[in-house]
């Protein structure tokens, strides 16, 4: 998670927060660059649905932020979900994994970027096919 300046520091186990003196798009670019370097995970990126709906006159600088963020994504697709849903996903993930939160100096509403890591060497289609084969084998063995 790459959070804005107002993103709360979680005290619960499973969440580590690192405060970074930089803006969200710059941190995102660095995180994506590092993930490309390691090559064994691929990012699934989520943006808040609210981010796209905030007018610049209500949050000056938000339009420029969206443009810079789009460039920082470097072609990676970004899914949109409401902030509340993404927060619940973060809390659920913290129950199973260590969640790393980069708290930035960005002071814009709903500007956070949520990143979930997937295996880069095993995709959803491969997993689905494997599960189907295992299920078929299990059915054959039970007859």
What is the fold's blueprint, element by element?
Blueprint: E1 2-3, E2 15-19, H1 24-38, E3 41-48, H2 62-72, E4 78-81, H3 83-96, E5 99-103, E6 113-119, H4 124-141
Parallel strand pairs: 1-5, 2-5, 3-4
Antiparallel strand pairs: 3-6
Largest sheet: 3 strands, parallel
Helix fraction by DSSP (H/I, runs of at least 4): 40-55%
Report the strand count: 6
* Average pLDDT over all residues: 94
Tally of discrete structural domains: 1
Estimate the global geometry from the Cα principal axes: elongated
Question: For the largest beta sheet, what order do the strands appear in spatially?
Answer: 1-5-2
Strand content of the residues, in percent? 15-25%
Round the Cα radius of gyration to an integer and report it. 18 Å
Helix and strand run: EEHEHEHEEH
Task: Describe the structure using short key phrases.
3-stranded parallel β-sheet, RbsD-like fold, 143 residues, 4 helices, 6 strands, alpha/beta, single chain, 3-stranded mixed β-sheet, 22% strand
Quick overview of this protein structure:
The protein has 143 residues and is α/β, with parallel strands linked by helices. The protein has four helices and six strands, in the order ββαβαβαββα.
What does this structure look like?
The protein contains four helices and six strands. The longest helix has 18 residues. The protein has one domain: RbsD-like domain (RbsD-like fold), CATH 3.40.1650. The mean pLDDT is 94. The protein has 143 residues and is an alpha/beta fold. The strands form two sheets. A three-stranded parallel sheet has the order 1-5-2. Strands 4-3-6 form a three-stranded mixed sheet.
């Amino acid at each position: 998670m790459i959070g804005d300046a107002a993103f709360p520091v979680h005290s619960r186990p499973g969440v580590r927060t690192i405060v970074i003196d930089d803006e969200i798009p710059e941190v995102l670019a660095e995180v994506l660059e590092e993930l490309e370097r390691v090559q064994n995970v691929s990012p699934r990126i989520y943006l808040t649905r609210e981010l796209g709906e905030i007018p610049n006159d209500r949050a000056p600088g938000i339009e420029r932020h969206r443009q810079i963020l789009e460039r920082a994504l470097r072609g990676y697709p970004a899914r949109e979900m409401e902030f509340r849903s993404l927060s619940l996903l973060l809390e659920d993930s913290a129950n199973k994994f260590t969640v790393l939160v980069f708290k930035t100096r960005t002071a814009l509403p709903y500007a956070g970027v949520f990143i979930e890591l997937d295996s880069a060497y095993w995709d959803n289609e491969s997993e689905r096919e494997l599960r189907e084969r295992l299920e078929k084998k299990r059915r054959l063995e039970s007859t």
